[in-house]
Design goal:
Layout lengths: L1 H41 L5 H28 L17 H9 L2 H36 L1 H5 L15 H39 L3 H57 L1 H29 L2 H17 L5 E6 L6 H22 L4 E8 L2 E8 L12 H10 L4 E5 L6 E8 L11 E3 L1
Parallel strand pairs: 1-2
Antiparallel strand pairs: 1-6, 2-3, 3-5, 4-5
């Protein structure tokens, strides 16, 4: 019984606090943001809106994302993020403005911002008001009446209606507190469902998403087929050819052993060198499929080891509280490896930097250098391949590389992390 009372008390108090939070957020954040958004849109013809609109809309997205988190944590209502990916190649002020205003999710966020004010007020009062009114009925109203001339008082006889009212108020207040343990969570869930009706992707967005997934799946299948052909070609032209030559040398050495031992020894020495070369090629091939250091040390250790092999200094900063799933981890590693290889081959940089961190359910990788710039994913090559690899996991890549540099490549992959980390989080490779 005591456990049930504590559970109801926890629910009631939780509903009260969360209801107050929703009301405060609606009036102190949503309403001012809506007003700022309207004013900044009106200021676009004056030029100031070009700068203000992206700032305000990004702030609205931050608040909407927080609402998505609360809906999931408080009510178990999942609200997917519907925003369009940021275009590759970097965004100037006008391009960023066009990108934000052309996204239907931005306008749905704006509509939610103003409609959430009355909805949060009503549902927040339901979530927290019952417990407050019930506590007032238990702890304040009946006892206050004992010392006033209103209602029942000490001059009323115990068998009069005053005693009935006293007890009735206590019972009613306790009932309201008990009911609030159920009404609070229901009100919060209703608020979360309201948020999902505006903050979740629309059917058109979902259809666009399906088309994008079909496209990326097709590209992934093509990329996988090309990768298998490359592995087959490398095995046929490399390790397989060396193993055939090794077998022939050993056969000749067996025949020459009786007649020309010196020649047999030379053939065996060549066979030993061929076996070592074949083993090296097989190891390189395995590293190209899934590097052992990635399996052993995770993404954190793998990118640090990779940075140490480069002929220029690379500042490495990582902040990973665990490990992504193996396919995502592999895609992230090869994306970083390709970007660093491009730095060495094409940038003419004297220094590079690498940042890998996980935040908000997304793995963020930033590779930059102080080189000559001019990198363009549209030109094809390794960058285009990495863009396809990331797209298979719903990831994105944005490249900022003006002539003269610097070049900054920002890559994101949605993922969750598993085990806690045990390695340091920053350093220089």
């Amino acid at each position: 019984m005591s456990e049930l009372v504590r559970e109801y008390g926890r629910r009631a108090l939780s509903g009260l606090l969360r209801g107050v939070v929703q009301i405060v957020m609606a009036f102190a954040v949503n309403l001012p943001l809506f007003i700022l958004a309207v004013l900044s849109i009106a200021a676009i013809p004056l030029g100031a809106g070009v700068i203000l609109v992206p700032v305000v809309f990004q702030a609205i997205r931050t608040v909407a994302n927080q609402q998505r988190v609360w809906a999931a944590e408080w009510s178990g209502v999942r609200i997917p993020v519907p925003y369009r990916a940021e275009p590759a190649g970097g965004l100037g002020p006008f391009r960023r403005l066009r990108w934000l205003l052309a996204d239907p999710a931005s306008w749905r966020d704006l509509l939610w911002t103003i409609l959430n004010v009355p909805v949060a007020l009503v549902l927040g009062i339901l979530a927290g008001g019952l417990v407050v009114y019930g506590l007032e009925g238990v702890l304040v109203a009946p006892w206050l009446s004992l010392f006033t001339d209103y209602g029942w008082g000490p001059f009323w006889p115990l068998d009069d209606w005053g005693a009935v009212g006293f007890v009735g108020t206590l019972v009613l207040g306790a009932a309201l507190v008990a009911v609030s343990g159920q009404v609070g969570p229901l009100s919060l869930k209703a608020h979360a469902l309201f948020g999902r009706s505006l903050l979740a992707p629309t059917r058109a967005a979902l259809a666009e998403r399906v088309e994008r997934l079909i496209e990326t799946r097709s590209e992934t299948v093509d990329a996988s087929a090309a990768e298998l052909r490359r592995i087959e070609r490398d095995l046929h032209d490399g390790a397989q050819a060396r193993l055939v030559a090794l077998s022939m040398n050993i056969g000749l050495a067996e025949e020459m052993m009786k007649h020309d031992p010196e020649m047999a020894q030379r053939l065996l020495a060549e066979a030993r060198e061929s076996s070592g070369a074949a083993l090296t090629e097989l190891r390189d091939l395995v590293r190209g499929i899934h590097p052992p250091v990635l399996a052993e040390r995770g993404l954190d250790g793998a990118v640090r080891a990779l940075a140490l092999t480069l002929p220029l200094p690379v500042d490495v900063h990582t902040d990973l509280a665990g490990r992504p799933e193996a396919p995502v981890e592999s895609a992230a590693y090869f994306a970083v490896a390709e970007m660093l290889a491009n730095v060495v081959k094409h940038s003419g940089a004297q220094r590079a930097w690498l940042q890998v961190e996980h935040s908000g359910g997304r793995l963020l990788m930033i590779v930059g250098d102080d080189g000559t710039g001019g990198a363009d994913p549209a030109a094809g090559g390794g960058m285009r391949g990495i863009e396809r690899r990331l797209a298979a996991f719903d990831g994105t890549m944005a490249v900022t590389s003006p002539p003269g540099g610097p070049t900054v490549v920002t890559m994101e992959l949605p993922c969750a992390l598993s085990s806690p980390k045990t390695s340091p989080s920053s350093g220089t490779g």
